[in-house]
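Researcher: Good morning. I'm working through a list of sequences from a screen, and I'd like to move beyond sequence-only analysis. For each chain I'm collecting a predicted structure so we can compare shapes side by side. This is the next one on the list. No need for commentary yet; just the structure.
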Amino acid sequence: MNSQEPAQRSALRTWRDRLLLQEDLNFLLTNRVPRVLLTRTMGRFSKIRSPLLARASIAVWKLFTDLDLSEARQSTFPSLHDCFVRQLREGARPVDPRPDVLVSPCDGIVGEHGRIEEDRVFQAKGFPYKASELFGSEAAAARYRNGTYVTLRLTSSMYHRFHAPTDARLKHVTYISGDTWNVNPIALKRVERLFCRNERVAMHLETVDGQPIAMVAVAAILVAAVRLHCLDVLLHLRWKGPNEIPCDYLASRGDELGWFEHGSTIIVFAPSTFKPCAGIQQGTRIRMGEALLEKCPV
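Model: Good morning. Structure tokens for this chain:
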């Protein structure tokens, strides 16, 4: 290795971090652009099957993120898309087995979380939205009135697959087409009801003891498609919504349910019988399989 490489990488990270701290510039570059067009273009580009192009693209990607592929099942990728939706080596994500705990369905950074105030949830301080608008249904949101929620943000470099938080049956899927605003903290502080504007997929699960659990996967710029194992179609922007899709898919704790084409946000909803586990704080990084919510003492 060239002795200058560590210093060069450090300088690139410093430059990148300074750029990201320029909030106005960050917001303009990632939002005041033709978001849907860029998202569709990126989707086509990422699926070009060329190992050489994939290696070059991944090298550029690493300049702007902390992309770590050491846990990936494969070391080379035929396309950039294959790297985005990579699987991990067996055992890379141990799953908490405690039955009174809901595990994190994905790798992510904890955002707003806590009690749902009637139907009101927060995307950022001072920026509330209605759970019923997010779900696209008053009836769906009613099951979580005064319940608990946790927002998990996936950065572009993270593992992008999501899993069952406990033993449960996936009973229903609601797909709602929408915009592709960036979902980083800068945008969440500026765009009201952002999660309710973007494309999203609500997954409604029922635990073995009959408790409702919901996971809402919210897409973002460059991320506008979701694949679920229980469905034989790719959910993307060309679907108009809301689309109500009944299903009956049994999953064990930690089983893979699907993936984002690139990565975005998952909001987990649970009844009032659950609360965030100790250590769940805004800004904390969590891995799939780690304890996220626990049952409240009786």
